[in-house]
Amino acid sequence: MIEKIINEVYSNGYSITPDFFSKDEISSLIDSFNQKKDNIKKASIGNNNLKTINTDIRSDKIVWLDNNENTLAFFFGFINELTIQLNRKCFLGLNSNEFHFAVYNKGDFYKKHKDAFNNSSERKITIITYLNENWGDEDGGELVIYLDNKTLKIEPKAGTIVIFESFIEHEVLICNKDRVSLTGWLKCSKDLTLY
To answer: What are phi and psi of 96, to 5 degrees?
Structure first.
């Protein structure tokens, strides 16, 4: 499955895989989220000293993860293998990652944007894993990815994983009920000890 994802990202810039994670794995991720949900805060836009909260652009809430957490070992094991394979196939120089749980309550959205910052080239690959069981068409909250020749709309159903290059524009449409994802980035961070 990882080889399929790598080839799709290499060829198309994105990969969408429904039911990538099993029901037990999704339950484990949901349990991890439930342990952290008391620490959720309003999400900001920008990076470094330029961070600001702007609810006209995004209205979701997030809680950051520590990739050493034992309950998420299977997830970060997959992320580490994915990173190795992406570096072998795509020569991206990925050497770090960051992940958070993102919560969209009813009425929340995130307008069209790129995950790669204008003042930084660290974020290379975006990874979104959906944790929403029993999600229907009427529930909204779709991820929309804007490509040069087409637009993709992905329902945030539990187990689906979406991986794409972080410079690709995308948005989250208005949610009609609460929606949770595990979202993050594979990064190429400069190691200052090398210079």
So the answer is: -160, 170
Which CATH number fits the domain that encloses residue 52? 2.60.120.620
User: Is 173 domain-assigned?
Assistant: yes
The secondary structure of 41-91 as a DSSP string is EE--BS-GGG-B--TTTB--EEEE--TT-GGGHHHHHHHHHHHHHHHHHH-
pTM: 0.92
3-class DSSP assignment, residue 153: strand
Examine residue 195 and state whether it is found in any structural domain, yes or no.
Answer: no
What is the number of structural domains in the chain?
A: 1
Residues in CB range of 10: below 8 A, 6 or more apart:
89, 90
Which residues does residue 180 pair with via DSSP β-bridges, in sequence order? 103
pLDDT single digits (tens) 104-161: 999 999 999 999 977 677 999 999 999 999 999 999 999 999 999 999 999 999 999 9
pLDDT tens, residue by residue, 58-67: 999 999 998 6
Q: Indicate the DSSP class of residue 173.
A: P
